[in-house]
Amino acid sequence: MKLKYYIFKVLNLSKLKNTIMKRNATAVWNGSLKEGAGKLTTQSKTLENTQYSFKSRFEEGVGTNPEELVAAAHSGCFTMQLSAYITEEGFEIESIETKCDIDLVDGAVISSHLTVSAKIKGISDDAFQQQVTKAEKNCPISKLLNAAISTTAMLA
Length: 156
Prior knowledge:
The chain is α+β, with helices and mostly antiparallel strands. The chain has two domains: 1-64, K homology (KH) domain (GMP Synthetase, Chain A, domain 3), CATH 3.30.300; 65-156, 2-Layer Sandwich (GMP Synthetase, Chain A, domain 3). The chain is 36% helix and 33% strand. The protein contains five helices and six strands. The protein has helices spanning 2-10, 54-58, 66-88, 125-138, 140-144, and strands at residues 25-30, 37-42, 50-53, 92-105, 108-121, 148-155. The protein has a three-stranded antiparallel sheet. β2 and β3 form a beta hairpin. The chain is elongated, with a radius of gyration of 18 Å.
């Protein structure tokens, strides 16, 4: 009970439920689709003029691509959501690693598969799987995606 108090009172996470957060990113593209190139910049500047192009998206070119960024967003968001739920239940997390595979068919993201490996002290596999399912359903990026979302999770 003390841990739940810490999470929701000291960290003040309960206030996030009624908070509107706004984040942004900017894309600048020059030239045609196949010969042109673009740069992405995020609000935090973690990505600043990061290059992307037809080759980085559809071939093996240098740079990032929108689908890779969606996969990064989904794996990061899910992992934080899972961490919150597991911590709320009173377990100590050593590590959680999540890989996200995005599948595209005919130009549409049709699925996102999360592969999770975690080291968590004292949690049973059943309790872990329950928290994984809850995080999969409630992660804001999961809610954003209009795609089938699946998860394979194991305790390490």
